[in-house]
Write a structure and sequence with these properties.
It holds the Pfam family NAD_Gly3P_dh_N. Its EC number is 1.1.1.94. The chain is of the alpha/beta class. It has two domains: 178 residues, Rossmann fold; 155 residues, N-(1-d-carboxylethyl)-l-norvaline Dehydrogenase, domain 2 (Orthogonal Bundle).
């Protein structure tokens, strides 16, 4: 049995706390809202994020960061990307020895263009981190909390650390693979939210399965194009954290990003959508970061560019789709070679 702190009591943090509790670990679930933590400790529910789910009594809620992280073996960072720096700054005040950090956030920081693991490494000194591992894959919290079959990937440049995380989480319902391609895993997990927003828009506009299939396929090509430029293994994008996560996020009503895009496609403005959602929509922030990065690296990302202009320049979604469909003719094979890697190209 290990002692694990899960920082972030949203839907995903709570679902992962359930997986850890099922594996007989001592779980400390930290959140900053006293009412929510009181609910977790008294009624063993977290109704705002996971309706009709009863939590194990082995999950104990904390509002004190110091009490949550003192004496634990591992720390799971399950907060939105925009809160990651602040939470890391709080955590390091109470640590004096190296700890295993697991992050489950999917995004790229605007302006700095850093991946989440890079943000964590920038904020946490080497004296308090044994390793940083990213846990990612096609995994809706709602289904994980119901113990429905789910598979994810634990990625780290330190394979031993990834295997430790694999051992922490793996069970009959939650299968964990390992990978050493941190760049590919993080880029795939982040950029799929952009494509899911776009998929929601096409559905909101009333377009059909043809459009959805094209969007997912061309979206994967964009993800691989930017990821490969950043040093990722192209084959990672064919796995759980690439194609797997892309499919589930673009096709499920559980997806916040799909739901937000669907509202945009139906004519709502971005501010209205975000207010209506009441939860973080990571794809909005990531679209800005990915667009900036594509401009900086001169990587062609037409879907990301179109979505950026819809979100931030008030371009009408239908006009954006029409412009995408009217672009100059091109070939598909170059993108397939990029996706499969040089070893498969002629």
């Amino acid at each position: 049995m290990k002692k694990v702190a899960v920082l972030g009591a949203g839907s995903w943090g709570t679902a992962l706390a359930m997986v850890l509790a099922d594996n007989d670990h001592e779980v400390r679930l930290w959140g900053h809202k006293k009412e929510q933590i009181d609910e977790i400790n008294t009624t063993h529910t977290n109704k705002k994020y996971l309706k009709n789910i009863t939590l194990s009594e082995g999950i104990v809620g904390y509002t004190s960061m110091e009490k949550a992280v003192t004496g634990v073996d591992a720390i799971v960072l399950a907060v939105p990307t925009k809160a990651m720096r602040e939470v890391c700054q709080q955590v390091k005040q109470y640590l004096s020895t190296p700890h295993l950090f697991v992050h489950v956030s999917k995004g790229i920081e605007p302006d700095t263009h850093l991946r989440v693991s890079e943000v964590i490494e920038e904020e946490l000194p080497a004296t308090v981190r044994e390793a940083v591992v990213v846990l990612s894959g096609p995994s809706h919290a709602e289904e994980v909390s119901l113990r429905q079959p789910t598979t994810v990937t634990a990625a780290s440049s330190n394979l031993e650390a990834a295997e430790k995380v694999q051992d922490l989480f793996i069970n009959q319902h939650f299968r964990v693979y390992t990978n050493t391609d941190v760049v590919g895993v993080e880029i795939g997990g982040s950029l799929k939210n952009i494509i899911a927003l776009a998929a929601g828009i096409t559905d909101g506009l009333g377009y059909g399965d043809n459009a959805k299939a094209a969007l997912i396929t061309r979206g994967l090509a964009e993800i691989a194009r930017l990821g490969s430029c950043l040093g990722a293994n192209p084959l990672t994008f064919l796995g759980l954290t690439g194609m797997g996560d892309l499919i589930v996020t673009c096709t499920s009503v559980h997806s916040r990003n799909w739901r937000a895009g669907n509202m945009l496609g139906k004519g709502m403005k971005l501010d209205e959508v975000l207010e209506n959602m009441g939860m973080v929509v990571e794809g909005v922030r990531t679209t800005k970061a990915a667009y900036q990065l594509s401009q900086k690296l001169q990587v062609k990302m037409p879907l990301t560019s179109a979505l950026y202009h819809v979100l931030f320049d008030n371009v009408d979604p239908k006009d954006a789709v029409d412009e995408l469909m009217s672009r100059n003719k091109t070939t598909e094979l170059d993108d397939l070679s990029q996706l499969l890697g040089d070893r498969f190209s002629s």
